[in-house]
Amino acid sequence: MALIPSQVLRVAILLSYFSILCHYKALDMPAHQTYGGSWKFLTFIDLVIQAVFFGLCVLIDVSSLLTKGADSREQERQLKKLIGLRDWMMAVLAFPVGAFVVFTFWTLYLYDRELVYPKLLDNFIPQWLNHGMHTTVLPFIIIEMRTTHHRYPRRSWGLAAVCLFGVGYVLWTCWVHQVTGVWVYPVLERITPLARVAFFSAMTAVICIMYVLGEILNGYIWDHTHTEKVKGE
Fold it and tell me: TM segments (predicted)?
């Protein structure tokens, strides 16, 4: 039996995201005052995705408790729709985008932090908040994957949705540059136009890889759990 019920974990994680978002929005950073505000940063978009996802998980938990024992096909149908939406969000947005943010941020940070998170930002963002945005996202989503079985869509459809998200963000980044004349991330300022195309293509490929890794990990966790249960019977 789990030491902490999964429902309690989800509420705790949701509250932590609310706290992170509130502290992040309260930061007095020049970049937040320019065109696009916080929404031009993938980190902020990811935080919103995670908060919405865990909010949906908590809503499903509450709905399940309220409808438990009730003989209503309509309530059951609505609950199944919410569960389907939750599973889709996990597969297409929460895991791949969250894992992508953690992987790319720390890879670039360790190579040369000035490319993605200039030292100047230490004057605005405390270390705990930086880790809340760029580190804890991954263990939180893995905890959710471990405690709840999520049904992934057909891989071709899932990858198409992830690619659409990736290309959409690339286009948004280019539009922000078109309007302001400044790239969202310092790394984009330092490379040639051709290198930017290669960089954007590589990042889109990476987020697709994250989708496949999430699908494989979800399958491994629940196939392994099912096997253990069968052996224990």
Answer: 7-27, 47-67, 88-108, 128-145, 157-178, 198-221
Averaged pLDDT for residues 77-102: 95
pTM for this model (two decimals): 0.91
Distance of CA 197 to the CA centre of its chain: 24
- Residue 111, burial from CB neighbour count under 10 angstroms (0-12, 13-18, 19+): exposed
Tokens of 141: 């989503």
63-to-57, 60, 82, 196, 219 alpha-carbon distances in Å: 10, 5, 10, 46, 26
How far is the C-alpha of 95 from the C-alpha of 217, rounded, in Å?
A: 11
Domain boundaries, the chain: 7-25+40-231
Dist. CA 84–CA 97, nearest whole Å: 19
Contact 114, 55 (CB under 8 A): no
The two tokens of residue 153 are 């869509």
